[in-house]
Specification:
The protein is mainly β. It contains 6 helices and 52 strands. The chain is 7% helix and 40% strand.
Length: 819
């Protein structure tokens, strides 16, 4: 009788009985009892009739009801002497699809999903997706995963053929090396999500290796759907300079996840959902106990069974970039960013998910700083977020933060005090004609355009712990299949606090409101009551506009990026907070930035940038009704305008002026006429004769004489101001004097034109306090003075500020507390 021992120390029979397989063994543990007993039809032929050397074929018929979250099985017995099992299946393709696999007495033996209608397995060989090994006598079952779209159900047929004969020689495989010798600390490139012929991929593992080497990858992980067969298919085909990591894409009906770093032959079950008593958590714990990494794959994909339902904070990493850049990926990054703002340290990865030979392996892929080119070191670095993702091996990114005499990169900590200064530098290579953007918890802080050379540098000086983290993106302002731009690179964040000392709870960020009376005195800084009876409104951004009747319309962006609106007069809130619906009328609309301007006729106009970068505009009628968001036209009056930040001002003639940072990082200006016609976007010249102006913040206000004033923060972190005359010409940017310095450094700003032709200026300084100044009608400036806090004396720490004016000369100010 042939031995089951395989060269390399791998005993296949032990492997088949390993703890990775179903703990209870066999298919009985696979299928809930009611489905396991689903009726089948078919006759069994006596195995003895084959004389011990022939074949015995049995056909089973069944029907599965409507639904995608269901499992069934076809049990059958295997007598001694069977050396091979062959299974074929067919089904009513107009009614759905049928996934298939097989379990034996020791548990899992293979899965091919809907990629195959026939498979075979024996001790010597197996169809890809199935594990070669001895055919054990006992209870077997064909595992079925019907996904039925027809209301009347789906009929299917399964045929099982048992081949009797002499014992077959075992199929050996190589143990994958866990390290590439001689490779110490450094940056390594790799793709963690690849499919071969062992599931629904079109490449063999050898062809995947060739493609990975062509892209310049240092490591790869083959992650076929719901099977362990890929891991036992390596035989003399692992290059000595390439690290191959074993993995599985666990494909549940409630989201897919990558179990990366599994021992060869280890299998992870997928027959569970969020309501199955923590089954996912149990499997995730087991993967981690084996040294593996748990990654939610393409979590925002809206396809049936793909959307992640197990909780995004229960994984080690999120695959926020999956193959060619799409709107699903943009949504994934937005959700991930919101998690970061809540202090949740979940790493981001990007993978190709390459299936067919036409899919590019390693586009995108991850660049990881690991102590060595070894499976434990690479997975540890990925778990800590010591990595960034790029569209190809041509792109390199270096994100570094310095403060307190120390430096840190992605995935590392740079513990700083609340308002300690931090200097962040981003260097980019290999990314021509792109825009580099720096994000903190407060949103976009800086952006710069990278020219055709592909080389770019971005610098930003800001707060430490009050900013929570810094991360970077590089995008190409060119439409993709479903987006206005294309992602080129994405870094994990640098954290400005220790994981043992959370920065603070973003939910405690509160929207405060105060007013400055015509005589220059301030009212008390007070929190605005929240929605649904909450004591205060928890928000991350705000905007406000003073109406002709003396009330003030206030916008607030909540921590989940939802947009809310209310009206206040003095200290009274006039109406409950209302969530502002999106352009489709659905309340699930989320935004990155928002601004509002009030007009003499009692109406308001609201502009927002959605999380995908699209700029929307709508009118709020004098009675409070909303007309609904519509996309703002592009620079030629056609298409849609994409921006990272946008601000709006009302002019006396009923027109509106908007400024925004486009997707190229530069400032643009446009006019919306009183008749609703758009002028198109024109680029605004920069400071000191520069062709463009870029920065992290901007604001605009209309003046009684028909001019407008623009306030912005440049990439140097300083406040810049200029005036647009009624004839459309610009004065050019100038810098107001700071509190004790020649220029004013700030991280947030607001400006409001007053009836007397002056402008009120509010800024959050480098010290985290709110400062106020006035630009008089003659162009001179008052010194900046600190705005008092809630008790009327102590300074107020804030992260964002806006200001508006009323006809009686009162200025209202809203601010989001910095913790």
């Amino acid at each position: 009788m042939a031995t089951d021992h395989v060269p390399g120390g791998v005993d296949r029979r032990s492997l088949l009985r390993s703890g990775a397989l179903l703990a209870a063994g066999g298919a009985a543990a696979l299928v809930p009892a009611p489905l396991a007993r689903a009726g089948t039809a078919g006759g069994r032929t006596d195995p003895a009739a084959a004389g011990g050397t022939g074949t015995v074929t049995t056909t089973y018929e069944g029907r599965s009801p409507y639904g995608i979250d269901q499992w069934a099985s076809v049990p059958f017995d295997v007598p001694p002497g069977v050396r091979r099992i062959t299974v074929t299946s067919s089904f009513d393709r107009a009614a759905g699809i049928l996934d298939t696999g097989i379990f034996g007495p020791s548990g899992f033996r293979g899965w091919s999903g809907s990629a195959r209608s026939e498979f075979t397995l024996s001790g010597a060989d197996a169809t890809p997706g199935y594990v070669p090994g001895p055919i054990e006598p006992g209870a077997w079952a064909v595992a079925l995963g019907p996904m039925v779209s027809a209301a009347g159900g789906m009929a299917w047929t399964v045929t099982v053929t048992l081949h009797h004969g002499d014992p077959l020689p075992p199929a050996p495989y190589d143990l994958l090396p866990t390290a590439v010798p001689g490779r110490g600390p450094g940056w390594y490139r790799g793709d963690l999500h690849l499919h071969s012929v062992h599931s629904d991929g079109g490449r063999t593992v050898d062809e995947i290796v060739v493609a990975a080497r062509r892209e310049g990858l240092d490591f790869l992980a083959t992650s076929d759907h719901n099977t362990s067969s890929t891991g036992v298919s390596w035989r003399g085909n692992v290059p000595g300079d390439l690290l191959v990591v074993n993995a599985e894409e666990v494909t549940t009906r409630h989201g897919h996840w990558l179990a990366v770093g599994l021992p060869q032959g280890e299998w992870v079950d997928w027959h569970y959902g969020p309501r199955d008593g923590g089954a996912f958590d149990g499997h995730a714990r087991r993967v981690r106990s084996l040294g593996g990494l748990v990654i939610a794959a393409h979590p925002m994909t809206p396809a049936a069974g793909s959307f992640w339902e197990f909780g995004l904070d229960r994984v080690d990493a999120l695959e926020v970039w999956n193959g060619p850049w799409t709107l699903d990926d943009a949504a994934g990054i937005a959700v991930w960013h919101a998690m970061l703002c809540l202090g949740k340290r979940v790493a981001a990865v990007g993978n190709s998910d390459a299936h067919s030979p036409s899919d590019a392996v390693g586009r995108p892929h991850n660049v990881v700083y690991a102590d060595s080119l070894s499976t434990p070191a690479v997975l540890d670095a990925l778990r800590r977020g010591r990595s960034y993702a790029v569209e190809s091996s041509a792109v390199t990114v270096d994100l570094t933060a310095r403060g307190g005499g120390a430096a840190a990169g992605p995935g590392q900590e740079l513990p700083l005090g609340f308002f300690d200064a931090v200097d962040v530098t981003l260097d980019v290579r290999g990314a021509p004609d792109t825009v580099a953007t720096l994000y903190t918890e407060w949103g976009i802080m800086a952006a710069t355009r990278i020219d055709g050379s592909g080389l770019g540098r971005l610098r930003w000086r800001g707060w430490g712990r009050a900013s929570m983290f810094a991360r970077a993106e590089v995008r190409r302002p060119r439409p993709a299949s479903t987006t206005l731009d294309q992602l080129v690179a994405l870094t994990n964040p640098i954290w400005f606090s220790s994981a043992q000392l959370p920065p603070y709870d973003v939910e405690q960020r509160t929207l405060f409101h105060t007013e400055r009376r015509p005589d220059g005195s301030w009212g008390g800084m007070r929190p605005l009551p929240g929605a649904a009876g909450a004591a205060s409104f928890a928000g991350v951004q705000t905007a406000l506009a003073g109406l002709a009747d003396g009330s003030v319309t206030v916008l607030g962006i909540a921590p989940d990026n939802s947009l809310w609106l209310t009206d206040v007069r003095g200290t009274a809130v006039l109406r409950p907070w209302q969530r502002v619906p999106g352009p489709d009328g659905k309340e699930a609309f989320t935004v990155r930035e928002a601004d509002v301007a009030a007009f003499p006729d009692g109406t308001c106009q609201i502009v927002v940038t959605a999380l995908d970068g699209t700029t929307y505009h709508q009118q709020r009628r004098a009675d409070g009704g909303l007309a609904g968001f519509r996309p703002v036209p592009g620079s030629t009056g056609a298409g849609r305008w994409g921006a990272t930040k946008v601000a709006i001002a009302a002019l006396p003639d009923g027109s509106a002026q908007l400024v925004g940072y486009g997707t190229d990082g530069a400032m643009y200006h446009c006019v919306r006429g009183r008749d609703g016609a758009w002028s198109g976007w024109q680029r605004v010249g920069g400071a000191h004769g520069a062709a463009t102006f870029s920065g992290p913040a901007l604001a605009i206000t209309g003046m009684p004489d028909g001019s407008s004033q623009v306030l912005a923060i440049g990439l140097d972190g300083m406040v810049h101001h200029q005036l647009r005359r009624p004839d459309g010409s610009w004065t050019g940017f100038r810098q107001p004097r700071g509190v004790t310095t020649a220029t004013m450094a700030a991280s947030a700003i607001g400006i409001a034109g007053m009836p007397d032709g002056s402008a009120q200026i509010a800024a959050v300084g480098r010290d985290g306090r709110i400062w106020h100044g006035i630009r008089r009608a003659d162009g001179s400036w008052t010194p900046f003075a600190q705005v008092p806090g809630p008790n009327g004396r102590d300074p107020f720490p804030a992260g964002q500020v806006r200001v508006t004016a009323l006809r009686d000369g009162t200025a209202h100010l809203s601010a989001v507390s910095a913790g």
